[in-house]
Amino acid sequence: MFVFHWIVGVLVGAVLLAALARRLRAPYPAFLALGGVGLAFLPGMPSLSLDPELALALFLAPVLMDAGYSTSLRDLVRNARPIAGLAVGAVAATTAAVAAVALWLVPDMPLAAAIVLGAVVAPPDAVAALSVLGHVSLPHRLATILRGESLLNDAASLLIYRLGVAAAVTGHFSVSEVAPAFAIGVVGSLVAGPLAALVYLRILRRVEEPVSVIVLQFAAAFGLWIAAEAMELSGVLTVVSFAITVARRAPGQTSPRLRVISNAVWETAIFVLNVLAFVLIGEQIGPILSRMTPEQEFAYASVAGAVVVTVILVRIAWVLPASAVRRVGFGSGSVHPDDLRPTRDLGLGAGFAVSWSGMRGLVTIATALALPEGGPEGREFPYRDLIVLTAFCVVIGTLVVQGLTLRPILARLGLEDSDPVGHEVGRARAEAYGAAVDALKGDESEAADALRREFHAALAQAEAHEEGLAPEGLPTDEPRRRAIHAARDRLLALRRNGRIGDDAYFVLEQELDWAELNATPRAEA
């Protein structure tokens, strides 16, 4: 019973921390990380453990599925050069630098273990970055680069991570043996993901119940990851390519009701997974600290501090020179004309914004937790305590130092663009309204006539706009909300005075909910 109460308390505390983060317009993982620090020192913490084999699948598969589904393939292709530079080059440079620092400070540390430490702390986290970007006005292209990096850098870091773990456990590693398998794995993943998506979409056509579809979505995320790893493919690339393929093909066969429910469920799941990750790593920090001698405390603290500084400085050193010489895509090269009109997102300002957006989070925690713990049937990974403690410090350090300062820094830099997404939305909305009017031709009913007048009014506003952008809402949106609000008040009064029961009220409430969803969502929603 105590564990149940403890879990409830942790979830409530996480919700309160997330609310505080929203109020301060800061990344909520930063506050969860601070909460994890508190849990590490709480007495009477229940013993929680997770099979290392399941850690990566549990934490990474759904996060990558969710991020991949909302990723623009067109924007990834347009910005392939800077994304590749960060997702592969920056990860490799960070891994090498961290391994060198670790070996310098801990000469007895095996090279493979030092490389694993570098791979654990190398990839920035998608959730942390996006939670900050949701509160700042960042040029669309820079936001696209950061999203693409956080989506694809896991593949590079996990490859290095797995090779390092295998070398540390077996004591054997050969590039000539690994390279062919790696190449086949990458190609196989990029083929397997889309093929699995096509099969999944055929199944989806026969399932209409939202609960069943959402269960299938999670089953696909976990099942694909496990199957890919079993076939020695890349779980990251398989899941991401699957999600991107589904996102391109599924909207035409997915109902609006399902999309609304599914988005809410996935957002909740990602939040709970972040909470669970910080709880699990916080639960491990206490025992690690209790096993350390005073000499180890100083040595481990020195390593952790040095690695935090290293990951921040290496990213800055990687990005800023490229921004200055405009060779890795942060300048004017490889930019689509619609993405950058008169704008200030070029040069060192943009480079510093990208270099300071390197918060670590869920991926670092998941890979640290996935290290073999040892036991009666296995040997613990060398320097596991040091790696887990350092990973936790890197997450705390980057989330707090960079996460809490990123918004004011971006505001100070004043980076702006011409809102290419807004222009695309406005032009596409006008075309969509035109198609709606054409679809009503020949229908002389009063309802069709009312709809025609509504869309014609919106099209008239688009024609009057200097760039032909249609307005965000339809003319009837506000009257519709006002009328539905009055209808809700009347239903509540009918239920209070006993003229209708709760069952009837809930049926009518759902009808009004869907009627209100017909209105264009308010900007603040």
UniProtKB/TrEMBL annotation:
Q: Name one GO cellular component term.
A: plasma membrane
Q: Note the topology in the membrane.
A: Multi-pass membrane protein
Compartments (UniProt record)? Cell membrane
User: Keyword annotations for this protein?
Assistant: Cell membrane, Ion transport, Membrane, Sodium, Sodium transport, Transmembrane, Transmembrane helix, Transport
GO BP terms, alphabetized: regulation of intracellular pH; sodium ion import across plasma membrane
Is Ion transport among the key words of this record? Answer: yes
**Molecular functions (GO terms):** potassium:proton antiporter activity; sodium:proton antiporter activity
Q: Where are the transmembrane segments?
A: 6-21, 28-48, 83-105, 111-134, 181-203, 210-227, 233-251, 263-281, 301-325, 386-406
Ranges for domain Cation/H+ exchanger transmembrane = 14-411
| Superkingdom of origin | Bacteria
Chief place of localization: membrane
| InterPro entries tied to this protein | Cation/H_exchanger_CPA1, Cation/H_exchanger_TM
Record bears the keyword Transport: yes
Q: Name one Pfam family in it.
A: Na_H_Exchanger
- Name the record gives this protein: CPA1 family monovalent cation:H+ antiporter
Which species does this protein come from?
Methylorubrum thiocyanatum
